[in-house]
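Appendix B, Record 12. Input sequence as logged:
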Amino acid sequence: MLLLLLSAAVCSLNSCRKEETGTPSSGSGGGEGETAGTVKGFFLLNEGNQGSNKASLDYFDYETGVYTKNIYPERNPGVVKELGDLGNDLQVYGEKLYAVIGGSGLVEVMDVNTAKHVGQISVPSGRRLAFKDQYVYISSYAGPLNFDPNARKGYVARVDTAQLGKVDTCVVGYQPEDIVVSGNKLYVANSGGYRAPVYDSTVSVIDLSTFKEIYKINVAINIQKMRLDRSGNLWVSTPGNYYDIPSRTFVIDTKTDKVTDTLEVPNANMALRGDSLLLYSATWDMTTGKSAYSFTFIDTRTKKDAGQNFIKDGTDKNYTAAYEIAVNPDNGDFFVTDAKDYITPGKIYCYGSDGRTKWSATTGDIPGHIAFTHKKLQPLK
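Logged structural output:
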């Protein structure tokens, strides 16, 4: 898993507030401000290296075109140690913004209108979030972040979003990563990444009525990402074992909970845009000593790789370490982040639906998770 490959080096904290206007390479928008349907902006959670206490929160305003770095300290001057260590997921639900800060063992809960602290949820080594009705579900390693062949199984915590109190837990597989709700079931990707080379290879299925695991689906080792398309198919990615077992993409039919397709398409990360699954993969080039990135998309209806790069202006050649990919649900813009060397500020690129760069901006360290918001972030008073 990528987390384990990152350096734990610590560089000096950047305590000042920085604003950066996106620089469009062509066309309008980005740095000039634009409308994007009902989406008013997005938050970006920078992970920071494990042990560095450098998780940070950025914000982009569509109306003004301004990308603002590290907004949390200024809006929460009374919170000690700011966001904390290792930002693992970020999502908006209702009037709240949830940030999983796994190294600090908590989920930070903020008002989505102001990004001000409203509460915390205690979860050891939390990873990902999912929501249904009045509950937030959080996957947890349930143990410390280190290699251990005897590590305990992880669990999913169910938390009441009104009271922010833990209601129940459900034990799943080893080192659970992504979690996805489909109907009345919760799917959990069990990676077993800290037990390598004896990885987990299952997706746990939890009945949300009873909050009990009803069975596991055998898929492939080291499962990381999952995305649910609008036909009810769950797209699953695995990086393999980083040696002789390659990265692949799988499809689970959530009506039958069976693996229906195995695609020999490497998949480091993915995002849905309508009936297209945008994904990228990385190949290490021994000659240059760098990773070469491939971008393609799969038609989720035919389950065929289009074999076409969806970035059309060649900027994908600039990436040092592609990390996050996300799609604006209103206008089809997509975003790719570059973690660079994992210990210094990264970069975010905004592309229009034509695959050409609209703007780019400098982020915090390891820009990892984007959450779009229909609420405009209110200015400080």
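The chain is about 0% helix and 45% strand.
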